[in-house]
UniProtKB/TrEMBL annotation:
Annotated organism of origin: Victivallis vadensis
Keyword field: Monooxygenase, Oxidoreductase
One cellular component (GO) term of this entry: cytosol
GO molecular function annotation: monooxygenase activity
Name of the protein in question: Antibiotic biosynthesis monooxygenase
Amino acid sequence: MINVIARSEIKPGCMEKYMQVLKANVPTVLAEEGCIRYEPCVDVNAGIGPEVKGDYVTILESWESVDHLRAHLATKHMAAFREAVASLRGESTINVVTPA
């Protein structure tokens, strides 16, 4: 199993539209072969870490294998998602990790 932490900075005023597009895509991703978890999250100012500045969305994902992740990234619905949110988000990072 692998885990993915995908984090995107959302441009000012674009969070509502970004979340609308993202949430519409979640059921399709969860139905993909090898998908264990695909959970959009937003930051919380809990007072135990750095203060959150700006709007960010983090997607926590778990996949049976790297091959399943690669297949996910190559799907038509993910290409359509990336196109739909391109103007709504700024910098993004993707970390792929596995349990130690």
